[in-house]
Amino acid sequence: MAAQSRVILVGAGNMGLNHARVVSQSERASLAAVVDPREDVGREAAARFGTVWLPELPDLSGVDGVIVAAATEAHHPLAMQVLNSATPLLVEKPVADNILRTEEILSLADRLDLPFMCGLLERYNPAVLTARSILDHPFHVTATRHSPYAPRIKTGVAWDLLVHDVDLSILLLGSSPQVVNSALGHFHPRSGTAAEDVAETLLEFDSGAIAHVSASRVGHRKIRLLSIYELDKLIEVDLLRRDVTVYRHVSESADVEGRGYRQQTVIEIPELLTSEEPLTTQFERFLDIIDGRVDAAAERGTILPPHLVIDQVTATRRAD
Question: What is the CATH number of the domain that holds 108?
Answer without folding.
Answer: 3.40.50.720
